[in-house]
């Protein structure tokens, strides 16, 4: 073989090597220790470099999933998913050596203990899912160091104490999902900084104090779920500005009455659930013109007057106005519409010919 051919072959090999850089050795060691700590070797047996292109564990549907970002010289582990594999124990300390992580999903496992303060080292994190585990203790204030976060979830855990005000540092956050997480106390005023927020799931926590007025400044808000808390009304009138809301669910508000005036401009709503929120006054007739509204739950409030005659718009699939001082006649019930008007004085003229006075009949209602 001529020297020219040998040189060409060497150049080709160098190009291939340059095109397939190896994973940072510290991260490889840390990943292997994580795999062994959580007994995942049968699910993720690394027989080659973790960042090898098109490796089976790097595919979108892989679980466990390990995916990387690479420069011309080195690869870093950027995505780690271990979802619903019943891993248990606490966080291994090696997890916090994966400092290039952008996406970590440990949801629906049996991980326990507290979230270590070392979580602050993962500053490139954009998506962090720790939901449906057995975490205890306080939600760590160090989460406020992860200022690149776009999505944070720790639903269904056993935390205690209030939300740390440092979460207000997460100004890029678009989704915050903390239903049934065990947190309590007032919602920190510092969360008013989260003006990029689009989705907030925070139901079934023992939050106290007033329903925050600052939510009205979240102009990208699409979903707000805050049922099952100890929050107090009224519903702030400035919520009228939340014109992008599609799903609004509040419940069990205490102490002060609210009106439905704030919904006047919320024409993007598909779900409006305000059960037991001390809503007083009349049902706005304008609700019948909300073309996207599918579910309207207003049971156990202080509504009065007549049910608007056109309230059952063509888009509506479920209506609950039970236990209110409402009267009037229901239009013939169309197929696919569930209704509950028990505890009212509404007369039901349904499509099967029944005529019911004073709400003594409870229609079949599916939730």
Automatic annotation (TrEMBL):
Coiled coil ranges: none
Position of the signal peptide: 1-19
UniProt keyword terms in alphabetical order: Signal
Subcellular location: Membrane
GO cellular component: membrane
SUPFAM superfamilies noted in UniProt: L domain-like
A Pfam entry, by short name: LRR_1
Membrane topology: Single-pass type I membrane protein
Protein name: Uncharacterized protein
Lineage summary: Eukaryota, Viridiplantae, Streptophyta, Embryophyta, Tracheophyta
């Amino acid at each position: 073989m001529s020297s020219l051919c040998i040189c060409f072959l060497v150049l080709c090999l160098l190009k291939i090597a340059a095109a397939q850089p190896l994973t940072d050795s510290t991260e490889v060691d840390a990943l292997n220790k994580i795999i062994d700590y959580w007994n995942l070797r049968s699910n993720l047996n690394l027989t080659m470099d973790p960042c090898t292109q098109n490796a089976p564990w790097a595919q979108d549907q892989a679980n466990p999933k390990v995916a990387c970002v690479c420069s011309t010289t080195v690869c870093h582990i950027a995505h780690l998913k271990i979802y619903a594999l019943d891993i248990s124990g606490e966080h291994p300390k090696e997890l916090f050596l994966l400092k290039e992580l952008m996406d970590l999903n440990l949801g629906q496992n049996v991980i326990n203990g507290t979230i270590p303060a070392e979580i602050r080292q993962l500053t490139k994190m954009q998506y962090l899912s720790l939901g449906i585990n057995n975490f205890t203790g306080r939600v760590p204030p160090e989460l406020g160091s992860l200022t690149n976060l776009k999505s944070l979830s720790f639903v269904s855990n056993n935390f205690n104490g209030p939300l740390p005000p440092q979460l207000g540092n997460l100004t890029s956050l678009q989704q915050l999902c903390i239903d049934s997480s065990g947190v309590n106390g007032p919602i920190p005023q510092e969360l008013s900084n989260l003006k990029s927020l689009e989705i907030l799931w925070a139901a079934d926590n023992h939050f106290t104090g007033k329903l925050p007025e600052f939510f009205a400044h979240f102009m990208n808000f699409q979903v707000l779920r805050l049922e099952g808390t100890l929050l107090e009304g009224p519903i702030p009138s400035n919520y009228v500005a939340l014109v992008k809301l599609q799903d609004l669910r509040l419940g069990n508000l205490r102490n002060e009455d609210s009106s439905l005036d704030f919904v006047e401009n919320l024409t993007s709503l598909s779900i409006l659930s305000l059960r037991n929120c001390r809503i007083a006054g009349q049902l706005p007739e304008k609700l019948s013109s909300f073309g996207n509204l599918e579910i309207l739950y207003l049971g156990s409030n202080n509504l009065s007057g007549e049910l608007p005659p056109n309230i059952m718009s063509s888009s509506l699939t479920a209506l609950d106005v039970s236990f209110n001082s409402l009267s009037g006649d229901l239009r013939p019930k169309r197929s696919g519409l569930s209704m509950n008007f028990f505890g009212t004085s509404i007369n039901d003229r349904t499509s099967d010919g029944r005529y019911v006075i004073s709400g003594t009949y409870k229609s079949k209602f599916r939730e």
